[in-house]
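Supplementary Text 2. Reproducibility record for the structural model of the 418-residue chain.

All settings were left at their defaults, and a single model was retained for analysis rather than an ensemble. We include the record here because the model underlies the residue-level annotations in Supplementary Table 4.
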Amino acid sequence: MEPLAERLRPRSLEEVLGQPHLTGPQGLLRRMLQAKRLASMVLFGPPGTGKTTLARLLAEGVGRPFLHLSAVEAGLKEVRQAVERARQERGLVLFLDEVHRFNRAQQDALLPHLETGLLTLIGATAENPAFELTPALRSRLRFLPVKPLSEEDLFTLLRRALTDPRGLPGVPFAEEALRLLAQAAEGDARFALNTLELAASLGEVSPKTVREALGAERLGMDRAGDQFYDLVSALHKSLRGNHVDAALYYLARLLEGGADPRYLARRLIRVAAEDVGLADPLALRLAVAAKEAYEALGSPEGELALVEATVYLALAPKSNSLYAAWKRAQEAARAHPQAPVPLHLRNAPTALQKALGHGKGYAYYHEDKAGSFAQAYLPEGLEALTLFEATGEGWEERVRERLKALRERFQTARRQKG
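Retained model, structure tokens:
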């Protein structure tokens, strides 16, 4: 029998989870399918996020033949064979997994056939494609990020796996176990489904069988068997609450229990951005540096860098002003998705756009400060929108004073102009 992850591959874009920026009503991939036109592209993102599935759905959706190759195994011979097949099956979609592993000669061999449209290339990689692909190939491709699935997306997927006829219907399960697995999978749908299948083979999907299927190293449990996400939550909340001793205690329990230090480093970076923010802008730099230091040194030496970041973050002043402002900004963008950008702020690279008034009357701050403060920046009807509010914590006290002065200057300039 095929693995569960293979059996549950989405059959349409509607079944794809976690990628609304690509598959939603305004997503580029959905618009391509609606237009029945497919462009060469690279899908890049972490493992287990659906890159292969998306490529297959695109080819099926436009009715094109599909050829799957791995750049780990394929070479110039396989590229030539793909070209010959494309001459027989016009419109062939070549899916090249791990595309970043192709060398310059192999990449160059694709160029003329992408140029003529004989081949449509869909590459997939977990690496940054800008560093590995040649400029000539990059110029012929679109680069589309594929994001890790959220815990809620993974929870939905796991529930689907236990109710879908293609999955594991009838297997007893506890929702607590699915939550535990969704947390531990860290955005990887393939890992989540493979682990679920192993847990189900033990008779039921319970917290106990999920822990057994995950193993202590992946789950990051302590020796007493405490749940991973409880310890991570305690670490985060201790940092937020300025309790340095508790933060160190929970960090030690996680590391001693086998938690992945790289995962903990990412959590520290999140605390720096979400809970410290502009109250101490150096916190984010230190947290990122701690992750890089650990990656350079490994365990146990690199763990001290995580300790340094933990102590710093616990003692730092706290502000969630950035987090709150971003939430408000997202809500405003969803409430007003079509609000037109003021003409003077629009780009005008062509004569037609200039004739339409794009960029006309824009006041360049460095040459016309008064005019810059007097001009509108937000769309009409949203001029009073206020998203960011600084607190009085740490460095953000200075931000609050400058923000107050700037907003007063904007209001004065607009009154005088109006």
